[in-house]
Amino acid sequence: MVDFLRDFIKVLRLSDVRVSSSETIDAMKASSLIGLEDKNLLKQSLSQSLAKSMREKEIFADCFDNFFKEDFMNIDNPSEEEIDEKTIFDEIHESQSNNDLESLFKTSDKTALMTSLANAASEVGLKDIKLFTQTGMFTRKILESMGLEKLNNDIFQASKEGKHNREEDLKEVRERIRLEIRDYVEHQLKLRTSESGKQIREDALSQVRLSQVDKSDFVLMTGIVRKMAKRLIALHSRKKRKANRGVLDIRSTLRVNQQYEGLLFKTLWKRKKVDRPKVIALCDVSGSVANVARFFLMFLYSLSEVLPNIRSFAFSNQAGEVTDLFGAKDIEGAAAETLILHGGGSTDYGQSLSDLEGFIENDIDRKTTLIILGDGRSNFGDPRTDILKSLHEKSKRIIFLNPEPKTLWGTGDSEMNRYAPYCHKAKACSSLSDLEKVVEDLLRYSF
Amino acid sequence: MAKAKLSSTKNSKKSIELIQSKFGSEGYICNNQIATAIFLSQNLHKPILVEGPPGVGKTELAKATAGWMNKSLIRLQCYEGLDEAKALYEWKYGKQLLYTQVLKDKLNDIISDTSGLESSIESLHNFDDIFFSDKFLEPRPLLKAVSDDEGAVLLIDEIDKSDDEFEAFLLEILSDYQVSIPEIGTIEGKVKPIVFLTSNNTREIGDALKRRCLHLYIPFPDAKLEEQIIASRVPDIEKNLKTELVNFVQNLRDLDLKKLPSVAETIDWAKSLVLLNVKSLDANLVRETLNVLLKFQSDIDAADSEIEAMIRKGNA
Predict the structure, then answer these.
(1) Residues B303, B156: one domain?
(2) Looking at B118, B134, B150, which one is the last position of a domain?
(3) Which residue of A34, A179, A209, B189 is most buried, as measured by CB atoms within 10 A?
(4) Residue of B7, B8, B96, B104 to mutate for A, most A C-beta atoms under 10 A
(5) Which domains are seen in chain A, by residue range?
(6) Pick from B217, B248, B263: which residue ends a domain?
(7) Is B164 within 8 Å of A238 when comparing Cβ atoms?
């Protein structure tokens, strides 16, 4: 039982459910308390001790149904006939030591066959299977471990003695067992790799340059952005308490000073809670960054979930505020609508910056961080660095994230080299993991 | 071994059914899942984190549990800014102040027969100091629950409304069922309390807290369960009205509303219909009483056009 739980929890972890060791212990206690007879009861109690949110519960239900589809429940049903489990295992062991695949198959005892199959599978290390190309190898290995050699010999013997019927008969047995094993291996492969494969792909995708991401990976990409945002929220949702001294806290002062006979020997002050300061984000959604814009927007959206005071703007030739849109729609809807409303035009950084200045004039102060996402290509229009300069003076800091590598800055119509001096940080930021790094940095050290 | 497994399943099934029937006698109709959670929590000594939409009976679950177990229910309502002094314990500093006054008067008696500074300090030191003792301790809900020797049912309501700091502070209580008071020591009761935490998911609960709890999600009940609940809570209601009403509410939950009607609201509605002496639903009546079920004008407007269709569907 410990074995199956361990395996099951491994599958859960691969499917993105976080299971800690203390939860594993809980699950074991729960299952030994509940027993294994009632599948539904087991499912409920495991779900209560392992899956701790709605999303995890859904994943859990899928995994459970998949995992316990066949083998486990079938193997564990000897109780009705009051057979001791041990004897079954002994029998199997005997039959295995005889290497008699034929009799094992022909006794039409499916349970014994499955058990023997499971044993052989664990013997050859099927749980390490990773790629579908390994299916054949593992099938063969299991077959061998279950006594293929003897069967082959029998077939050879039969053909030598000219017993064609028996030869055909045995060959059919071999074929059917092979198919059975192959099914089993494929099922196990599916169980163990469908999710870990996804993980490998996700890891790779977060490293890929944003402009190179294939359309077919968009859905997966959205998932990654979400996950990142969630991680950021988990890391940074704690309100930062700054030890700013506020007014005298009379209650606790009195309380502490009782030991000094009520003399105000030690004073306690109320602390001011300081929330995260303001962030203003400006995102380029013009044609030149079309490939990246979607991800920038998704990321902005996720940011707006992490940071309470964020105003978001999007622009191509003029800037418009999208904060409310982000608040009202879901991530994809908001990104799509922003692209329709503001995207597609030819870029004009000068105009957009002056628009932005108009929008945020009253809002920008020494606590404000301005994030600009864009390639800095302004179609040879006036870059209006003077606006950026004045924003630089008014704000706490300006961060410019450019999807182009640094070597391309300043080439063609790129004004990046003229903007960079007025930014506290100007970085090339081409993949999701870059973006995440920058934001984490932002949240951790800047305020 | 096979036998042992079998009997453990049968036993636990029996206890779960027993729990379910006991809840029934308290007027709380629950499904198998909830009973399983209570069973596990009793046996593994783990708190239960109950989540679900508002009004499905999360708080009621704790009350009913306290009811059939015959234990006292101690409730702690969480809110932003809730701190140790309000949740755990507080010193009665008025009394402590008086105590120091009394001590001052007695000071002469204590040190009268000593000579020299050193010996007077010595005798002061030997004097039994009760400044920080449980005489001056004002227990708040958490301390009360932990130190209750009979074992209590502790309900920490709407944990998501509290601060992160408070959540961290709960960890000791939830895993060891004990409270440390720096001036006194660790306080622990003879019987572990049964702890419920409820959350409406306004914010994500921390992993550390979740890890220490069993997690129970209570969704809206299905029609059959909801009828049972209504039957137990509003016994005067007529059978066909009950069916009509439950079907109507179930259909209402399929609409795209800001706030879906909860079980609590269904009960309220059933009560008001009984009060109005209604025999069966009709569109006008529903329109007039819809504000019992729906709490936003926009929701009422959205449902308005669907009322006739839903009544017809409910009757069919």
Answers:
(1) no
(2) B134
(3) A34
(4) B8
(5) 2-201 (no CATH), 242-273 (no CATH), 279-445 (3.40.50.410)
(6) B217
(7) yes
A26 and B CB contact within 8 Å: yes
Residues 3-22 of B with CB under 8 A from A: 3, 5-10, 12-13, 16
SS3 content of chain A, % helix, strand, coil (to 5): 65, 10, 25
Nearest chain B residue (CA) to A263: B97
Interface contact B6-A259, CB threshold 8 A: no
- Interchain contact, B8 vs A34, CB within 8 Å: yes
Percentage of chain A with pLDDT > 90? 0
- Residue B61 and residue B176 share a domain: yes
How many structural domains is chain B composed of?
3
Q: Do B40 and A45 touch (CB under 8 A)?
A: yes
Query: Does the structure show a pLDDT above 90 at A316?
Result: no
Range of the domain at B29: 10-87+140-217
Size of interface A-B (CB pairs under 8 A): 110
